[in-house]
Design goal:
This protein has about 350 residues and is mostly beta strands. It folds into 2 domains: about 220 residues, Sulfite Oxidase, Chain A, domain 2; about 110 residues, Immunoglobulin-like (Sandwich), CATH 2.60.40. It has a 6-stranded mixed β-sheet with strand order 1-7-6-11-2-3. Strands 15-16-23-22-18-19 form a 6-stranded mixed β-sheet, with no helix packed on it. Strands 4, 5, 8, 9 and 10 form a 5-stranded antiparallel β-sheet that branches. A hairpin with a 5-residue loop joins β2 and β3. The relative contact order is 0.16. The structure holds the ligand Nc1nc2c(c(=O)[nH]1)N[C@H]1C(S)=C(S)[C@@H](COP(=O)(O)O)O[C@H]1N2 and molybdenum atom. The site of the ligand Nc1nc2c(c(=O)[nH]1)N[C@H]1C(S)=C(S)[C@@H](COP(=O)(O)O)O[C@H]1N2 has 18 residues, from β6.
Length: about 350
């Protein structure tokens, strides 16, 4: 279905307290609890969620994926046919482009992630590229559009959630049509029965409830492509599309939390810290540093888990009584380093600022 303008709207930036709408979005779209950083592969129920509209009803038995548009051999595939194709499993870290939005000020009224919009799963599916090759993309086509069955209104436009990739990007060998997560059938909230997984990119590219793939010869102007998911330093400008994830890292907060403030309470003595670091575009993590009260040193890196997954790190700390601030900072193989403070963005995308954890040592 095509996009339908309803009523133009622009949301005003917010300073200070969270609005009921933000709290409601945060309750629907859960984050990964940071203690789940202990797992190489995030258990499915702890994987973060970002669902723009409603989880659509779907039935694996009758699901159909259409491949059409500017192709020589349009076709429709059942889930059974897709499952019968060559399959592979890849460990992939997904991060929401809006992760960290809640820490920017002024902030855009949307899902107010603090830092928990990231997780890693083992996604099983069939590679996309051979399917596109067999459909025969016509020479005039420039992009492939991926359309979900979920529909809603955003910024005054009614639309299906849909995103596009350039042909060279869509033909990358590592992109899959996925029907299983961590060895189990895909859950409704993660796109059952079929989704795209685009490793190395922010999560918005990995279209869930995927029902249609279409080759097009004009740039796709769907709202989630042409308007949303752009970095902008000024409202109203075209901006730069969000694509690959920025270098980032997190630690599992040590000790025990205070229920309401989440301040950590840690006994004095040796504390083992652990966390994860990742970057986008398949760029490896080469360094993680850990700091106590602004004094930095290198953490130890665990072996890498392929090109698309976060990398573990550990560090030890001799905790002395008092109030402390812990932080971690990753560097990738292209020399990208996390910034000290968020790089402000109109709609709150791409915040990869250093995580800070307040600890009270007793
Ligand atoms: N059809 C559809 N696909 C979607 C979305 C959506 O709302 N609808 N959200 C996107 C966004 S913004 C992210 S971050 C990821 C989240 O995937 P997850 O919920 O499985 O973690 O799905 C992406 N794919
Ligand atoms: Mo996202």
């Amino acid at each position: 279905m095509s996009d339908v303008p309803v009523r133009p709207s622009r949301r005003s930036p917010i300073v200070g307290r969270f609005m009921p709408e933000e709290v409601a979005l945060a309750s629907r779209n859960s984050g990964m609890p940071l203690e789940a950083l202990r797992y190489d592969v995030t258990p499915a129920g702890l994987h973060y969620l970002l669902i723009h509209f409603d989880i659509p009803a779907s039935d694996a038995a009758t699901w159909a994926l259409s491949i059409g548009g500017e192709v020589d051999r349009p076709r429709t595939l059942s889930l059974q046919e897709i499952r019968a194709m060559p399959s592979r499993t890849a460990r992939v870290t997904l991060e929401c482009a809006g992760n960290g939005r809640g820490q920017m000020s002024p902030r855009y009224p949307s899902m107010p992630w603090m830092e928990e919009g990231v997780s890693t799963a083992e996604w099983t599916g069939t590679p996309l590229a051979p399917l596109l090759r067999s459909a025969g993309i016509r020479s005039g086509a420039g992009e492939i559009v991926f359309r979900g069955t979920d529909r809603g209104v955003d910024r005054g436009t009614e639309h299906d959630y849909a995103r596009s990739l350039s042909i060279p990007e869509a033909m990358r060998e590592d992109i899959s049509l996925v029907y299983a997560m961590n060895g189990q059938p895909l859950l409704p909230q993660h796109g059952a029965p079929l989704r795209l997984v685009v490793p190395g990119w922010y999560g918005m590219a990995s279209v869930k409830w995927l029902a249609a793939i279409e080759a097009v010869n004009t740039p796709f102007d769907g709202i989630q492509q042409a308007h949303s998911y752009h970095f902008r330093s000024n409202a109203g400008e075209t901006g730069v599309p969000c694509t690959v994830m920025r270098v980032n890292s997190l630690m599992a907060p040590p000790g025990i939390p205070d229920f309401y403030t989440r301040t950590r309470i840690v006994p004095a003595g040796r504390v083992a810290l652990a966390g994860r670091a990742w970057s986008g575009g398949g760029v490896p993590i080469v360094r993680v540093e850990f700091s106590v009260d602004g004094v930095w040193r290198d953490a130890d890196l665990a072996p890498a888990q392929g090109n698309w997954s976060w990398r573990g790190w550990t560090c030890e700390w001799e905790a002395s009584a008092g109030e402390h601030e812990l932080a971690c900072r990753a560097t990738d193989a292209q020399g990208a380093v996390q910034p000290e403070a968020p790089v402000w963005d109109v709609t709150g995308f791409g915040n990869n600022a250093i995580q800070r954890v307040r600890v009270s040592v007793r």
